[in-house]
Model the fold of this input.
Amino acid sequence: MQYKFLSPCLLALALVAPGAPAQTAAPAPPAVDPATVQALKDMGAHLQSLQRFHVTNELTGERVLADGQKLQHMASAAIDVQRPNRLRVKMSSARSQRELFYDGKQVTLFTPAQQYYASVPFEGSVGDLAGALQAKYGFELPLADLFVLGTPAAPLDKLDSAMNAGQDFVGDDLCDHYALRQGNFDWQIWITVGSKPLPRKLVITNRADEARPQSVSLIEWDMKAVAASSAYTFKPPKGAKAIDMVARKAQ
Amino acid sequence: MTKSSSKIFLAALALAALGSLTLATSVEAARGGGGGGGGAGANRASAGGGGGQHAAAGGGANRAAGAGERKNVQATNAHADKRTNEVRNTSVNNVNVNNNNVNVNKNVNVNVQGNNNGCCNNGWDNDYHPIATAAAVTATVAVTSAVIGSMVNSVPPSCVPVNYGGMVYQQCGSTWYQSQGPQYIVVNPPY
Done:
């Protein structure tokens, strides 16, 4: 009798037990941590407030081969910005060196090795330019996110997940580390602590492929070594040849 | 763990911490006043973390300072295994400006031929032209006069250079070339 009475009790205990610790622990945090979103907003606002700056990007990217083996490559870029509408970029990758000039009236892509340049008229902010080059010419600016974070072009309401991942050093700079998930992209960003938050490192993991190719961008800032205003206007070197910039064809 | 052994453990930890401090100081001293970019390695080394990815990216930090000041030497893929051209996907560099990457990637194996951006994203670091898979190469050879993926030292003077997707191509009738170091490589038509 006693035994028969006990077993339903045990059963009840067993049923209750797994749930018990959850009741005493804090409720699960929301998938999108509001403080993380706020940190991104603060950094975006600070980025948009910078009028002149020089920033360099050292990028490590990956290619996935047919069988899933990955190859890593590197590229670097040096970027000068004078808001609202001046941009100069030098891009170095394994097999090409390219320069971009934008002076608020026209944008030029120049390849020094071949002395070819292609110019098209454009008016708008550097953020507008980043979007237009991508949409019309299929051309991506290095650190393109920098030019749109803090503007409506980079909405933060599409995040599936956002969390604070603690602190870490990037170079000598103490940074807050955040991890985010957005569709097929997982991204991590390291933002310097303090009242002038700047991104120092950006990692993007592409989950569209099971090999998960990943890019790692180290970002260095220099607010003093800024380019002269005249450096944003392209002046063709002697002997350079103008070529067409062909709009991207739809697939 | 007993009390005494935990003491020994703590002492060892302290020693290790002291050791890494000394290391960091000497690295600091060796670095001297040289540039802002080099510090990354020292911190990572003392923190003891970081995988290969870190090391690769960190090693490059020094070079960033000299971006665009590269010596007049060219990298070439002349000796690269042809399998390195069979790229099915790549990493992406930004999450906001080209979110359409997500859609491009879905069709990666269908649209490889006939578009320089057919594979993957068109990241600014992406200066190799996906020549397409072995099967596609065979198919393309039939309709072009030059073998896709072959290298030449110069292109005919009648070729027309264009900038497409941020890269310079030479169109010579139905044959397209992309410069690769000192040479040109025959590629599928980018458009």
